[in-house]
Amino acid sequence: QVQLVESGGGSVQAGGxxxxxxxxxxxxxxxxxxxxxRQAPGKEREFVASMGWSGASTSYADSVKGRFAISRDNAKVxxxxxxxxPEDTAIYYCNAVRSGxxxxxxxxxxxxxxx
Length: 115
Description:
This protein is mainly β and about 120 residues long. The protein is built from no helices and 10 strands.
């Protein structure tokens, strides 16, 4: 059973930066397209960014383009978040992008951006 663990969230002022990390136990991430998602209070979970297994292919939601950057190594997936805005406040999750559906969601990591 895959267990996803996200970390690195926190509280920052608008314009600040955070770097999120995602690790998985029970499964290597190397062969999977990995993505970051977020869920703000009262809203549905939404896609933020993804990266192909080779690291060559990336995709971003329009709302974060130019501010967020996804990266990965053999063990973890990262999300560098710059120029944070209050509307980025959410719980951030990582998961694999796969035809068989998502793995069980982790606890996520809370990001709070104050104006």
